[in-house]
Specification:
Layout (H helix, E strand, L loop, with lengths): L1 H33 L7 H19 L3 H15 L2
């Protein structure tokens, strides 16, 4: 029974990671599209660009939850 639970937990973790992996590029595209028309202070713009870059680095490193978190912060600042 214990092995079955471990296999199920591992399967859910892999499925969740895969879902995040596909979410990141979509978020990055939305941020890129919104940036040119965003009405942000220079500080907000710098923060959004940093978070977007951090999200891409995390995505490429396979750290998809970190990527999703950074991109979500950037999206919130922009208002998307």
């Amino acid at each position: 029974m214990r092995l079955h639970s471990l296999v199920v937990a591992l399967g859910l973790t892999v499925a969740t990671s895969s879902a995040f992996a596909f979410h990141c590029p979509k978020d990055m595209k939305e941020i890129d599209a919104a940036l040119p028309n965003a009405k942000l202070t220079p500080e907000q713009m710098a923060e959004v660009k940093k978070l977007r870059a951090d999200g891409e680095v995390s995505h490429k490193a396979g750290k998809h939850q970190d990527s999703v978190d950074a991109l979500a912060k950037a999206r919130k600042i922009i208002g998307i």
